[in-house]
Each structure stands twice: as C-alpha cells, then as structure tokens.
Amino acid sequence: MYRFRTLTGLLVGATLLLAACSAGAGGYSTSTATPSAPSTAGAVTVSAGTAGSLGSVLVGPDGRTLYTHSGDSMNSSTCTGACLTAWPALTAAAGQQVTAGPGVTGALGSFVRPDGSQWITYGGMPLYYWEGDAKPGDATGQGVEGFVVATVSGTAAAPSMAAPPTDAPPSTSGGYSY
Question: How far is CA 74 from CA 19, 42, 119, 129, in A?
Fold first, then answer.
C-alpha cells in the first residue's frame, strides 16, 4: 500500500510540474508586441533571370525558367492531366503571399485551382515550369507544344525554329486538352 501511495504521489507531482511548465512556456503574456511589417518569408517570389539568347525571363523561387501557353486565356489554363505532369503549375498554398522579386514590374496574380491552391499568373496568364529544365538558365521547353518562356516584358518569346534539344525528355500530347 505504501508503494502505491508513493507512486501515486509522484505521478500527481509530475503532472502538476508538467502543467506548470507548459503554462509558462506557451501561456499568455501580459507584455504587448510592436506590430512589424509583413514578412515575405514563406511567400512565393517570381523574379527576373536570364535564359541564354532569350534574354530576361521570369523565374520561380527556385530560379528555374517559367513558361506560358498559347492556348491559355486570362486566369484560365487548358493544361490538365498529363500536361500538368510535364508542365507543372507555379502554385502557392491557399492564402500564401505572391511577391515580385527584382526586375519584375508586371502584374502578378493568381486564381484558385480545384485543389484549393493558387495558380500564379503574370499579366493574368498562368505560369508553368517545364520538367525538362534541370537548373536555372535552362529553357529547353521554349516552343514545345505551344509553350514559350514568360518574359519580364509580358510578351511571349518567339518560339525557336530549332527542334527541342535531344536531352529534353520526350513529350506526348496524350492527356492534353488545348
């Protein structure tokens, strides 16, 4: 019986101690904080970069080239299914801020995708990555299946007359709805 009382007493004491520590660490504070400017931490930032002879282009947060599609319209994409596998959308989580980085002067915006995330746009046109671009400065998707690099000026870069590079992954039109 003595052991039971001792064990019970230790458990009650430990529980009270944990409760007191938790309240101190995460409890309310009587001090007031000074409001600060909104942070861009966690924001999706679109910046200007370069892609070979194509000049100044839009790049995503990872520095890779962004594209637009000739079949899209303002705040609307024709790329679905397999197309979105080859051409992933530049997205932000619902409520996440989208910011213009250095060199971007056009209008960034977004529209809501069926999954609730935001599809980032530039001048109202949906922005995409190309699965064949491995690093910043790559623009192997230029002119492929109606996609062109998104330029800082907001005008489409002229599609290249050359065939896509042989190191670009093969692309099919299966599942595309243009």
Answer: 55, 26, 12, 18
Which among 121, 116, 122 has a CA at the least distance from the CA of 94? 116
DSSP character string of 92-130 = E-TT--EEE-TT--S-EEEEE-TTSPEEEEETTEE-B--
Domain count for the chain: 1
User: Which residue segment(s) compose the domain that 115 sits in?
Assistant: 44-149
Residue 98 forms part of a structural domain = yes
pLDDT tens track for 47-59 = 999 998 898 999 9
Contacts of 116 (CB under 8 A, 6+ apart): 94
Mean pLDDT of 138-145: 96
| pTM for the structure as a whole | 0.66
Instruction: Report pLDDT digits (tens) over 110-127.
Output: 999 888 889 999 999 999
| Other beta carbons within 10 Å of 110 | 20
